[in-house]
User: Fold Secreted protein with PEP-CTERM sorting signal from Mucilaginibacter mali.
Amino acid sequence: MKSFRLLLAVMVLMLAAGSVKTANAQCAMCSTMVETNNKSGAGTTKGLNNGVMYLLAAPYLAVGTVGFVWYRKYRRKNAANPA
Assistant:
């Protein structure tokens, strides 16, 4: 039964990964502006990439903080009550 669940989970993940479609990262106006500024040598592209990195880092920091707090509480609980 456990191996069936594992096989089912792997199959679902493979189907989900195989059905990913490409998507535009920006609206049409933003994409056009970035392409134009990139060709002219302006620094807008670099600023946009930095902004994306900041936005990408926020969820990882939030999940990491919650995980760290959870881990610390778990360790303290086990240290107070040794089995």
Q: What stands out?
A: Residues 25-83 form one domain.
